[in-house]
Amino acid sequence: MLHKKSVLDAFEKVDRSLFVLPEYRSVADADEALPISCGQTISQPSLVAKMTELLNLAENSKVLEIGTGSGYQTAILAELAGEVFTIELIPELHETAKKRLDSLGYTNVHAAVGDGYSGWPDEAPFDAIIVTAAPPVIPEALTTQLSNGGRMVIPVGDSEQMLCLITKSSDGLIQVENIFPVIFVPMRHQKTTHDQ
Ligand code: SAH
Description:
Layout: H1 5-13, E1 34-35, E2 41-42, H2 45-54, E3 62-66, H3 72-80, E4 83-88, H4 91-103, E5 109-113, E6 126-131, H5 140-144, E7 146-156, E8 161-168, E9 174-182
Parallel strand pairs: 3-4, 3-6, 4-5, 6-7
Antiparallel strand pairs: 1-2, 7-8, 8-9
The chain binds S-adenosyl-L-homocysteine (SAH).
């Protein structure tokens, strides 16, 4: 797969071995998905690159990421965009990723614990939205929070998922394009007190 130079440069700057579990550090350079804590996975670099490229980021882009995970994709976005807002459902993953991104000096990253199905309404609209866990259908709150002219990349589906590119035209019309089949962890709903 050929990638844009700006995206390749971002990959040069971010050391993936700092984002994986210690036992996988020696294979961090391989183009493979790897397990992270809490039963989640970090995607293979070629897929991270493809998804990043589809966002067409500019230096001043405001980006929303759902599924911080290890923070690897967050760091790549932070190299290319103006501001990155990232939401993670699992507090433990959020804490570790936040510490990691702070220690690497990413001052343009804003990380929060929460349910990505609601997006980040106070900071909307976003020029780009990237979702790295798969919901069964495209969450409406996220399409609403996409700016006119904005782009969203999201895996959609249950057992069979499709990577989708959603574009919003300058007059607010939504278009959905199927890119290719993918496998992501499911996007879950935050537990309410009724579930506990
Ligand atoms: N992009 C990450 C990998 C993410 S794996 C990286 O580069 O490491 C998917 C992540 O989405 C997991 O950490 C999972 O906990 C999180 N997730 C699942 N459902 C979510 C939701 N509703 N809101 C926010 N995060 C969610």
